[in-house]
Structures are given as C-alpha cells and as structure tokens.
Fold these 2 entries.
Entry 1:
Amino acid sequence: MWKGRFQESTAEAVQRLGESVSFDHRLFRQDVRGSIAHARAQQRAGMLTAGELEQIEQGLKAIEADIAAGDFEFRTDLEDVHMNIEAELTRRIGDAGAKLHAARSRNDQVATDTRLYCRDVIDLQLIPGIEGLQRSLVRQGRRHARVVLPGYTHLQRAQPVLLAHHLLAYVEMLSRDIGRLRDCRGRLNVCPLGSGALAGSTINLDREAVAAELGFDGVTRNSMDAVSDRDYIAELLFALALTGMHLSRLSEDLILWSSSEFSFVVLSDAHTTGSSLMPQKKNPDVAELTRGKSGRLLGNLVALLTLIKGLPMTYNRDLQEDKEPLFDSIDTLDLVLAVFADMIDGMEVRGQAMTRAAADPMLLATDLADRLVRNGVPFRQAHEFVGKLVAESVSSGTPLNRLPQEVYDLVSDRFGPGVREVFDVERALEARTNPGSPGFDCVLKELERWTLELKLG
Ligand code: ARG
C-alpha cells in the first residue's frame, strides 16, 4: 500500500533489515493516544467531520484492544508500529483513516510516541521499582538497627559502622537515581507533534492543545531539533546505567558478605543456586547476574551515543536503532530491581558474625588518637603515638585493648587512666553524633526519615 513513486516492493532481506515493528510494537498504546489527540486537532481545524473523528477514535481504540488481546497480526512489510496501525485503521474505516496522517510525519510521530513511552515507564515502572528496593533496604536496616559491622576502605577493615548505615548508603544512591529519572522526565515532557518530517506543515494545527491533551508540559521549540533529538533517551539510558552500576556495587557487597570468609549474610535458597558438580555450593547468582547486567546497561548507553554522534540534521533512519537499547535497558532494570528487592527482604543477617568482626580493637585506633587530641595532643603526634601502640600490639601478639595501661603511659602520658574504655564499640558509635555519621542516634533518625519518605508505616 501507499506505493507512490515506487514500482517494486522492497526486497525481502531489505524488509528484514528495515522493519522495526518486531520491537516497536510495544509503542502501540502511545501511538494510539498520539493519533487520537492529532485527529481531535484535525477535527477542530475543520479537516475532519465529527463523524469521521468518531470513526477514527473508535477504530483506533478497537485496534488497541485487539493488540492488547494478542489478536492483531503485525506485518513486517508495513515496517513499524505506526504504519501497521494506520494501515489497519484505513482498512477498517476507509477514507477517514486515510486522512489521519495530514500535518504529521512518522518523524514527529515516533518522537512523540517514544517520549510518551519513556514518561510512562519512568512513572509506572522505574521509579516504583527503585522505591521498592529502597523499602527492602530500609526494612532490613530497621530489623537490625543495632547491628554493628566493620566499615571497609580498600576492602580492609577500617572503622565500625552500623549495618543500617551501610544499607542506607545504597538508599541514598538510589534516591539520586530517582532524582535523575525525575529530571529526565521533566526535560523530555514536551510534544514534538506539528514538527512534521522536519519543517512543520502548511496545515497549522493547535500544537499547544495537542500537547496539553497528551499531558505534555509544552511543545518543542524547533522542528528540526524535535525530529532528530534523542537526548532524552540518552539521559534515560545514562540514569539506568548508573542505577545498574549502583546495584552492581551492592551485588559485590552481598557476594562478599555471603562468602564463607565473611559469613555476614545468608541468601535465601530462592535467590541462590547449587553447583551441578560440588554438592556443598550455594552460589549468589542473582547478585552475580545483576553485577553482570550492569555491563549491558552501560553498553546500551554507549551504543546510543555512538549511533547519534555522526548524524547530520535532521532525521536519519539510523535513529530507528534507538529503541532496542532503550527497551533492553528498561526490561533489564525492571527485572533486576524486582528480584533484588525480594532477595534483600529474604536475606538472613548474621548479626553476631558482623559484631564479632567489628570487635577487632584495631578498628578503634582512630578513636584512640581522637582521645589524645581531646587531651591536647596535636593530631599528627597522636597518630604517631597510636601507631607505636599498634606496632607493639602486632609484634607482641597482644590485642590493642589488652596492652597494659603502663604501655600506654610509656608512649604518652596523655592517654590518661581508663584509656581502654575507648574500645567499647557501642560507646564509639554513641560518640558519633554529627549528621551523616554512623552513630546510633543519627542512623535511627535516618531510618525514621526514610520510613516516612517511603511510606513504610
Ligand atoms: N520506525 C521509524 C523509527 O523508529 C519511524 C520513523 C520513520 N521515518 C522515516 N522517515 N522513515 O525511527
């Protein structure tokens, strides 16, 4: 259909190369929504009778229902979702359907559909999915609100922190991820319809009205930019790649924590797998796959940027390649977020093992130096004094908190009597009262704040 200047249809292999309906069919709801808004504008401009508009609306809704029910056969010779729906509409209702494409091109149509789609996915899948994981993390934090474990730098035990503090670190990252999605949504929510192929149209429909009807905040301001801009997809893919990277780091923590070497957590049977060879194995596959999936999330971003970078103005068919990375990143993250939230909820925390690891008195060497500072010793000297005690502890094999008071006094008279009280971990955490620190009070407040924010009740 619609052959125009072409005498022959495209070769079969070319059709296979050029078709996008096998993946862009998922834009069908947005395509129908956009077409109805466009038809209404046409009717207001006197291009359609009320009866024709009625036919178009009913026809499009029936097609949408058929597609949703799986009763629609997409034809690859019709290339994409837009042509499939329009052709079927015309087949069903005749001339009225053939009027729909006036003052519109697939170039502004696909840009509109994709923006609507990104908006829907951000609102209905991605933000709720991330919040779901945040809730799981906060729930675990609350369940184990007083559990202490070593905080690490360079993967070496550094200082004691609360488990909840560690988990809330990820809640913070995820909340920035949500912020980025909201920013992206704010920028993408403008309507390209009316931009035509690249140069607008001599038929001037009311763009503002169409935009408002579709829930856009306004209209795009330059028709050439509007049909070739895919920044919003790049932004979304970046936001998703970054979320994937955060989940990958969390995965890495869980992989370490569930190893025999750490034994800090036990992942549920539902979220681990056995080995076909080694009967004793319980592998953290979900975490490993999540870490692995971050590769493709990054890859999709790079694929899109590479795809766009050499394109002259304006629309080029290359842009059709924007959708598979977009859909893949959305599907990947959607799945990972759901599985991950479940895994966190079902994870057994071995609080005693964590506390035992955090009881290493070396972790409070800095607090010991702080004590000297409070007693008037310049920090650099204090650091050196404590360093001497650490060396003595290592060489004598006596834990730092067991070195006799005399040894302390020999190094510096400023440690004062009862110096070993420093090694009380609870006390050390109580002393950390500054906002953002891992002290009991601060962390409790943060848990409460997130409980409210995430409506955990
Ligand atoms: N399927 C196309 C895409 O995704 C729709 C736009 C086609 N426009 C064109 N002039 N061939 O980009």
Entry 2:
Amino acid sequence: MTALEQLAELLFPNVTKTPEDYEALYPPRNLKEGARVVRIAPSPTGYLHLGVLFTATINYLTARSTDGVFFFRLEDTDKKREVDGGAEDILAGLRQYGLEIDEGYQGETASIGDYGPYRQSDRAEIYHAFVKALVLQNLAYPCFCTPDELSAVREKQDGQKLRTGYYGEFATCRSLTPEQAMEKIRAGLPYVMRLRSPGDESHRIKFDDMIKGTIEIPENDQDIVLLKTDGIPTYHFAHAIDDHLMRTTHVIRGDEWIASVPTHIQLFRVLGFKPPKYAHVSPIMKEEDGSKRKLSKRKDPEAAVHFYTEQGYPPESVMEYLHTIANSDYEDWRRCNPDKPRSAFPFNLKKMSVSGALFDLNKLNDVSKNVIAGMTAEQVTDAVIDWARDYAPDWHALLSKDIAFTTGLFSIDRGGAKPRKDLAKWSDVPAYAEYFFNAPSEYPWPENLSAEDIRTILKAYLPVYDPTQDKQAWFETIKALCPAVGFCPEVKEYKKQPDAYKGHAGDVSTVIRVAVTGRRNTPDLCGIMSLLGKDAVAKRLNAALNTL
Ligand code: GLU
C-alpha cells in the first residue's frame, strides 16, 4: 500500500464504495432534450420564508416549462441552527402553495425518487467515499489546526492587510506528509478534511449566470473544508456531490452564493464532474423611507409565509403575485389571458430582475382582490370557513351556522363582467360581512338630509317594501315613492333642477341602505335585503326609524 492509500484507509476504514459505484447507482437521467433538473434545497433552520417560496417557485416553473424534474433536498448539516419542525413546515408550505415536487425528501420516513437519500444527514457514506477518493489523488488532506491557531493566522493576515483564510503559505497542514498526518490521527487529534485547492488567486474565472449575466471572479485558492471534525460535509462540498449525483442541470438559488461559485466550479472540476448551469436569484426587496433594502426575516412579518396564512390570503393570490415579481411581463400576459392557467405563461429565467424585485403589499392586495373576485361563492365560503377555524373562531361559528346564508352573502355582486373587489384576504371578511349577522348600531345618514327627511323616507318605504322583488322592480319601487317624499326619481332630471328637490332616487336608496346595513356603501342592496329576509329587514327599518 502506498502512504496515501494507508492514509485514506486510516481516515475512512468503513468506506467500501468508490465514486464509480455511486456513478453507476445514480446514472444520468433519461430526459428529453432541454429538460431541466432543478431543486429546492432548504436548510431547516427556520420556518418557510418568502425568499425560499419564491426561489422554489422559480425552480418549479423552470422544471414545468421544460418537462424537467423539480426535487426537494433537505440540507440539514447545521444541526446547531436546526429548528424543530422546520423541515415539515417547509414541506407543508410548498404543498400549500401548489409546488408539487417530483422527487425528494417527504418527511422523517418518506421520500420519492431514485436519486436519494434526499436528506444530507443520510448521505454521510457518499460524501466520505468521495473524500477518500480525493485523498488517494492527493487532492484532499486532513488539517489539524485548532480554532486558536486559525484565529492567530487570521490576526496575522489582518495585521499585514492580507486576504484572510487557509491558502498558500498559511495552509500549514497542506505540507504534512501522509506519515505525519497518520501519526496525528493515531494520536487522536481532531481534524477536518480540506481540499488541496489547485486554484490561483491571480487567475479569474468567468461564468454565465442565467439571471445575472457574465460574471468574472478570481479563482479559489483556499483549501476549503470539505468535512467538518464530525465528518459532516460543508455546504460547498455537499452541493457539488449532491447536485452531481442527483443530476441537477440548473442550480437556481439565492444570490448570496454567487461569491462561492469559483469554489463550487473548482470542486466540480476536481471531482471530475461537469458543473451545472447557475442562476442566482436576487433577494426580494422592500421599499422603506424611499430606499430599497432586503426583505428581512427579523424585521418584516410579511417575510414569513405563515403571515399570508394568518391573514387569509388565498395561496393562489400569493402565487399569482410572486409570478408578477418573477417576470415583469407576467402582468401584461395576465391581462391578455385572464382565464388561462398560470402554467401557460412562458416563464423565462432571463427575464428575472437582476437588482431584486420589490415586494409591495398593496400590489399583493390588488392581485388578491382580482383572484378572489374570480372565485365562486362556494369556493369563497369554503376558504373563509377554513381560515376562520384557525384564526377567527367566533366568525367560524357564525359563518358555518347556515352555509346557504354564508354562500348567499358571498354571491352578492359576484360574477358578471364587473365583479366587486372588496376582499383582498379572508381577514377582511369580518369587517365586510358584519351587518349580515348583526343589525346596525350606528347610522351614518347622508349629511344633506334632515332627520325629518329620513323619517319620511323610511315611513314611506315600509308599506311598499316587497321582499320578492328583483333588482329592477326593487329600484322601480324606490323611484315610485320619490315624488311623494319630495325626491326626484331620475338623477338626470335632478341635476337639471337641483333646487326643486330634496335629492334623488339614489339618496332615497342610501337612506334604506344605511337603515338596513349601517353603511353608505355596500354591494347590491336588493340582494342583501332578500338574503336577510322580510322579518329582519322590517325589523331593521323600524329600529332605524326609532332612533330618529
Ligand atoms: N441550503 C442552502 C440554503 O438554504 C441551499 C442553497 C442552494 O440552493 O444550493 O441557502
């Protein structure tokens, strides 16, 4: 056995498989030309946040628009920062937003696909086999430097205004002979495994990022850590191994990784792999005090995907909105194709914002109003009741008591060419629907009318009120009572001679509206009155009359 072989055996006595074995186990995928294999690879260090949902959406769209594969890999190598239930939350969130995965980690005991395991903590033996192979080629070595020694080096570098890190003359363990390394291992010294970087900082590498364009950065010359003391890989190393063996064609991820691309490309080359294509997604930005900053997990509640669930935004609305910030021509496309499924949109990575799309809650509300306006009353009823079960228990009881009534209230002014757009989210429902369940306690009467006028109108209306009337007959009744109470039945006529009347038919219906609902503005009043029913309406009209 050569000294390197002895060292490799001492480092990895249990590794029996070789890289070739894994190449055979995970063969290139048999997909049609142009199909892209992409993934979302979150770390379970928190709950699902908007940035991950956005990046997942971009990956999903890329896979779907090329008949490719979208898979989920759980990057759980940082056990210290792991949050209980984080992985499940992320998985549930992706499912909730309709980002169905084709392959990947599905929970503690489940996974789909032939390229797993899809959880990094289950892949130790694979990483070790590849490091062992690198040791045999003298491309990786154990490093015994202690944290204290490493910080002393950093201080020295800082003092001399040099680049910090483990490279060149500072990479002291690089020059240990296999025999010296073995002696230290046998003596029980802890170690990490490092790459023997073939890079030269004075050379630059050039790569084409599919979102950001051509990027040039100095080559990596740092002997980066491949395996930590506990044998767990670093992100960099796991990325190269996993994305190669899982046959990822396009790595679409947050742009905080751009600076690491030279290291990643170097790793792919050293390992004999073809590097994937990269696309780095700019973070979602927020405007604050006139300037742009990154949406922050710490500062902005809307950065957490839970926010949208709690507020009751339909997942459909959030998705629709994320599409508008993914490709700026999405909105025009939607305007021209209001009824097409989103999947028909020609998504293109190249049309993504380089500087970072701006997140705007008002815009989301507008998008969501359109989405909700396009839903059926039954869909709205189901979704609102689901939302209220968790976030507004009192309303859950009210809304589920009589489903036909609830569906009825959401049917008013729904459909047709110009549906009303009152609701942006389910938490708007209590304010919107209050008067359907409770008689008004306040009456914002029109200011131009006196109490006497209002009383006269209500008194005149009570005997002619007919709950069986349709919208047209209902309004005819209002118009018909106008002359007797001093109002003009036609607005046009009224405008010609405003002094001749106290107001017009619209004012009369506003009085009835305020008496029945406590509001000046509501959807179709005839619909509201017929849903409330004769007794309730008569009671409300009389109650209003009694306050005057
Ligand atoms: N686990 C990495 C992160 O959460 C994934 C980056 C990647 O997609 O490669 O940032």
